[in-house]
Amino acid sequence: MKYIIASSAFDFILQKYKIEKIKTIGDAYMCASGLPVPTYTHALDMIQAAIEIRNYMLERKKEKEARGEIPFLLRIGIHTGPVVAGIVGVKKYAYDIWGDTVNLAARMEQNSESGKINISGSTYELVKEKYNCVHRGKIQAKNKGEIEMYFVEG
Predict the structure, then answer these.
(1) CB neighbour class for 89 (10 Å; exposed up to 12, middle 13-18, buried from 19)
(2) pLDDT tens digits, residue range 6-32?
(3) Active-site position among 2, 130, 138, 142
(4) CATH 3.30.420.270 fits 2-152, yes or no
(5) Where are the domains of the chain?
(6) Does 107 participate in catalysis according to the annotation?
(7) Which is nearest to 101 in space by CA: 81, 121, 77?
(8) CA nearest 22: which of 31, 34, 9, 13?
């Protein structure tokens, strides 16, 4: 029940920035900015939404800890690049995306830390003038080799 509340809050945040929710997979929440209509601000929109989602979850963490409960921890990973998008299914239709960009975004999340927003070098290049980011260096990512990564400070 608590997960549904967080997912709904995420949905409202994404709606504000015109970001497309793709799906939830277990405890993962996948979304894409700049789809289905391309925008020039897709990376900035995604970072701003990520900051709001992170802040929302940090507030929930404080509330749960104050009640002596175990909080749900969140890692965020963002990568920018081309994707293939389309409708899949015959009986039950679903809008989905796939491609190397999706895989790299997953590696950004896997190599993030709790309460942090980890972005790739390509995303950093698009947002570095607006957001303060800390360079993490090249980090080994499963099946991808070393990738430049940055934490967004806000």
Answers:
(1) exposed
(2) 678 999 999 999 999 999 887 788 999
(3) 142
(4) no
(5) 2-152
(6) yes
(7) 81
(8) 31
**Helix, strand or coil for residue 36?**
coil
CA gap 137, 148 in Å, rounded: 5
- For the record, the structure tokens of 85 come out as 């998008």
Q: Which amino acid is at 126?
A: L
- The structure tokens listed for 84 are 């293939």
Contact by Cβ (8 Å): 60, 9: no
Catalytic residue chosen out of the listed positions 54, 61, 107, 116: 107
- Complete DSSP assignment for 7-31: HHHHHHHHHHTTEEEEEEETTEEEE
Over the stretch 71-97, which tens digit does the pLDDT of each residue have? Answer: 988 999 999 999 999 888 888 888 899
* Six token digits for residue 142: 């499963």
Cα 38 from chain centroid (whole Å): 18
